[in-house]
Specification:
Layout lengths: L33 E2 L2 H9 L3 E3 L8 E2 L2 E4 L4 E5 L10 H8 E6 L4 E3 L4 E11 L4 E7 L1 H5 L2 E7 L7 E2 L4 E10 L4 E3 L6 E7 L6 H11 L2 E3 L15 E4 L10 E6 L6 E2 L12 E5 L5 E3 L5 E9 L5 E6 L8 E2 L5 E2 L14 E8 L4 E3 L4 E9 L39
Parallel strand pairs: 13-18
Antiparallel strand pairs: 1-14, 2-8, 3-4, 4-14, 5-6, 5-8, 7-13, 8-12, 9-11, 9-14, 10-12, 15-21, 16-27, 17-19, 17-21, 20-26, 21-25, 22-24, 22-27, 23-25
Length: 405
Amino acid sequence: MSEPDLIDQAGKTADDPRPSASSADDTESGYSTGILPCQDLKALVARKDIVGLEPIAEDQFQPASLDLRLGPKAYRVRASFLPGTGSVKQKLDEFAMHEMDITHGAVLERGCVYIIPLLEVLDLRHRTSAMGNPKSSTGRLDIFTRLITDHGTAFDQVPEQYSGQLFAEVSPRTFSVLVRKGSRLSQLRIRRGKPPTSDNLMRRLQQEHQLVEVVDGEPGARTHEIVSGVPVSVDLEGRQSGGVIGYRAKNHSGLIDIDRIGHYEVRDFWEPVLAPRRGLILDPAEFYILASREAVRIPPSYAAEMIAYDTLVGEFRVHYAGFFDPGFGHSDAGGEGSRAVLEVRSYEVPFVIEHGQLVGRLAYERLTSTPTMLYGQRANSSYQGQGIKLSKHFKPVPAGGATSL
């Protein structure tokens, strides 16, 4: 195992002499707690709270998150793990089967589990923690990706005052993928303090902003109650797409280069799913791309996360990349009418879903201040205004052309 690729943790104490994130640099923030917007993330980079082993690029910054990059080494492991009281390196010494140099590209095989040290290192201050999520394009390729830290006891959670390297657990489920140093599979949000959130807050936001709204005023639409988040249901009629409700991944397809955009023919990897006469039976062996019945809006001063798995509504997972940036689906950013794309996989047994059935809930959380850019206001916002849309790696499907793939 190459020692230079694993950074030792440099712990901080509660008496860290540096000012907290809320004291020195946040005089323009609207709130003392919340998710940090892009301008505050840039400030963290400038003062070395976030460090890149290679310089952090401008296009890594999203409205309320930072894209994370793969480092030059990947480790094929026998099983997924959490470090607990130890370090990631200690676990790799025990579970790594093979070390791969991915500097210029290497294949991550479908069904295998890999640990990849990232190029970003954190040195968080008092009251500052972080969370990881797969990027939207990662989820739409059915790549199961989670963030790990040294001494971590939960995936995708970076504790307050964490100081050390970040690692990605990567497991392609449907397609084998080609990655390289610098490829971006996940993103990081930084949270200051513990901002308040409640169903009452989300009910107020729903009244003010119509966070979710049935597309085209569908007759007979049922509105689910806001409980533990804003409800999202599934579209199985496909009125806006000629009866196409989504896509099902083909088994044994070819390799996908994660850094190639608009390159692959849809028909080589996907088959369209037409509106069923009754319900859609989800096969546990299959991966589906579907869409929400509702248009989703994220106000400029908020972000949202899809609760990915809720046994109360069924044995299936509806979203691998659950983070929605400020401005998604919002008129201020040209996204009016955007729907949530659902990455769906059933667990254990076949499961029937029906049109308008509740499939997930959105939890909204405020930012400390409005970001200086919103989702959709620059070229790399790939999914603003979307309906049913595959990942950005595939060539666009002409309107009405999905049924002939």
